[in-house]
UniProtKB/TrEMBL annotation:
SUPFAM superfamilies: Pili subunits (SSF54523). GO terms for cellular component: pilus. It comes from the Bacteria. InterPro entries: Pilin, Pilin-like. Belongs to the N-Me-Phe pilin family. One of its GO terms (biological process) is cell adhesion. This is Pilin.
């Protein structure tokens, strides 16, 4: 889903073979527009700290 100022929200379908079920959890990508680049900030409602770290590791 793309909303507002280009915010992208991705929702996981149910998947029991990926560790804990991620179904219904989301990853949100929010653009931050600079003078020469767009930097994306990732956020999530996933509770697994290892997955959260992997999703958000490149945030600035």
């Amino acid at each position: 889903t793309i909303t507002g100022n280009g915010v992208i929200t991705m929702t996981f379908n149910a998947a029991t073979k990926v560790g804990t079920d991620l179904g219904g959890n989301t990853i949100t990508l929010t653009p931050n527009v600079g003078d020469t680049a767009i930097v994306w900030t990732a956020s999530t409602n996933i509770s697994n700290p290892t997955l959260v770290a992997a999703i958000t590791k490149n945030n600035t």
